């Protein structure tokens, strides 16, 4: 008798009927919804007043404070949420929530100023100056608003593309200053904050949870893990003229909760690199003895990796990412890689059970990184490996190389498989469009942003 085993990730989904992403997303929505209800209750408890503009100012200020706290939870890198939703999705939500915060804060400032000007019969400009110079906490709030505006401007696409990651990251550290200033403003003049002991306890608890999440996820966990594991470079192996693999060893590596498909933010502690954190995926499934990353020389940071010396200390933040077998829903799988996006795909091929088809898209065969390993793994696992080469615009009998008809031609049962996609943005979009046209169920499609993968 032959027994067919269902992979763990598939068994979990089949048993609960709910994907890990849905569970985590529902948890975040419920958390936000419960806090909206609490803020609304305490606002109503404190009284509405008679001035409509002041009422709008108070409402926008309260929900701006709640939004700011939620912002911090989104980028706290809490492992439970990150493994289920992925840093790319959480970062996208953080970005759009940030723009919501900016407009809400501006509305708060405008409505409060206009409402008080209406009562005092001062001009809005004179009222604004009076608030800044005579009311405790208002000047601090203005400084916080200016910082949020600067951070929002730095996050706009046209600015982000022209800015080094380190500069962008440094500017974002001022968000912590803005939070402290905004909170002291809320304590000083927020009527809802002091409307009752319960309201005061709620706001203190909310900010303790939000900032505590950041301290835990961004500082305590990385420091604790690196002190425990003492990571060092064990070997630097050129894979091609512009590709290098780095092997990392340390203590108790079997205790690092990393899975194939995830990535770390790596800092190599040399005088010229310690302040640079580069996201690189694991290019081999973790085995408890070493970790391996493989990088292509796409920028200054990755280009200098070839010169890293054996024995160099490493500070790694992570593991991060939801591009793992945890999210599988079907017994069989398709893995689609483009360029150096092969690194998490190669790790997944090593770990995933069931029948696997791999599509590896490169411009020419010389760009196929880790190809010998992929062939050996595919042979050992009984997987099917397709190397797709040539210009993207090159015609094929079935249309575009990664178009719907080509995918069905190579994988007739693609609608009954999970599909993992990692590659350059244009390629990833093309594959996702094809899967949508083929009506592959959304919960079976798993995509990793190339910028976070390596």
TrEMBL record:
List, separated by semicolons, the cofactors it needs. FAD
Where it mainly occurs, coarsely classed, is: membrane
Could you tell me where this protein is found in the cell?
Membrane
- What Pfam families does the database record attribute to this sequence? Ferric_reduct, NAD_binding_1
Domain FAD-binding FR-type as annotated: residue spans: 226-326
Write the record's keywords in alphabetical order, separated by commas.
Answer: 2Fe-2S, FAD, Flavoprotein, Iron, Iron-sulfur, Membrane, Metal-binding, Oxidoreductase, Transmembrane, Transmembrane helix
Q: Which InterPro entries match?
A: FAD-bd_FR_type, Fe3_Rdtase_TM_dom, FNR_nucleotide-bd, MRET, OxRdtase_FAD/NAD-bd, Riboflavin_synthase-like_b-brl
Segments passing through the bilayer = 26-44, 56-75, 96-117, 137-159, 171-189, 201-221
Name a GO CC annotation attached to this entry: membrane
Q: Which GO terms describe its molecular function?
A: 2 iron, 2 sulfur cluster binding; flavin adenine dinucleotide binding; metal ion binding; oxidoreductase activity
- Do you know which CDD domains this protein is assigned to? FNR_like_3 (cd06198)
Q: How does it sit in the membrane?
A: Multi-pass membrane protein
Q: Check the record and name the PANTHER family matching this protein.
A: 1,2-PHENYLACETYL-COA EPOXIDASE, SUBUNIT E, NADH OXIDOREDUCTASE HCR
Q: What is this protein called?
A: Ferredoxin reductase family protein
Q: Which organism is it from?
A: Umezawaea endophytica
């Amino acid at each position: 008798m032959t027994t067919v085993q269902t992979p763990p990730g598939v068994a979990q989904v089949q048993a609960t009927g709910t994907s890990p992403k849905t569970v985590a997303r529902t948890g975040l929505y419920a958390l936000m919804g419960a806090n909206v209800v609490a803020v609304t209750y305490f606002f109503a408890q404190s009284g509405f007043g008679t001035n409509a503009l002041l009422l709008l100012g108070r409402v926008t200020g309260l929900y701006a404070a709640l939004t700011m706290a939620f912002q911090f939870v989104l980028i706290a890198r809490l492992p439970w949420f990150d493994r289920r939703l992925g840093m790319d999705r959480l970062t996208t939500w953080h970005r759009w929530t940030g723009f919501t915060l900016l407009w809400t804060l501006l509305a708060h400032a405008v409505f409060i100023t206009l409402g008080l000007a209406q009562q005092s019969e001062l001009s809005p400009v004179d009222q604004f100056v009076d608030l800044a110079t005579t009311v405790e906490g208002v000047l601090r709030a203005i400084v916080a608003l200016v910082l949020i505006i600067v951070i929002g401007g730095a996050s706009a696409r046209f600015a982000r593309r022209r800015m080094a990651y380190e500069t962008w990251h440094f500017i974002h550290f001022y968000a912590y200053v803005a939070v402290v200033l905004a909170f002291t403003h809320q304590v000083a003049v927020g009527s809802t904050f002091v409307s009752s002991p319960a309201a005061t306890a709620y706001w203190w608890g909310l900010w303790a949870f939000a900032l505590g999440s950041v301290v835990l996820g961004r500082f305590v966990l990385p420091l604790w893990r690196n002190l425990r594991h003492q990571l060092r470079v064990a070997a630097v192996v050129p894979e091609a003229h512009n590709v290098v693999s780095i092997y990392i060893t340390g203590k108790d590596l079997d205790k690092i909760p990393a899975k194939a498909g995830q990535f770390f933010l790596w800092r190599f502690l040399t005088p010229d690199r310690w302040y640079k954190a580069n996201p690189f995926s694991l290019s081999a499934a973790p085995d408890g003895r070493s970790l391996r990353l493989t990088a292509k020389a796409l920028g200054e940071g990755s280009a200098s990796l070839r010169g890293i010396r054996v024995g160099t200390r490493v500070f790694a933040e992570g593991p991060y990412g939801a591009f793992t077998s945890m999210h599988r829903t079907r017994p069989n799988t398709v893995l689609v890689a483009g360029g150096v996006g092969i690194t998490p795909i190669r790790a997944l091929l090593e770990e995933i059970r069931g029948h696997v088809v791999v599509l590896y898209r490169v411009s020419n065969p010389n760009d196929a990184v880790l190809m010998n390993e992929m062939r050996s793994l595919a042979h050992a696992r009984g997987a099917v490996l397709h190397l797709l080469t040539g210009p993207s615009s090159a015609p094929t009998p079935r249309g575009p190389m990664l178009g719907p008809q080509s995918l069905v031609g190579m994988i007739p049962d693609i609608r009954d498989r999970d599909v993992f996609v990692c590659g350059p943005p244009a390629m990833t979009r093309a594959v996702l469009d094809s899967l949508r046209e083929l009506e592959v169920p959304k919960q079976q499609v798993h995509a990793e942003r190339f910028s976070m993968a390596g």
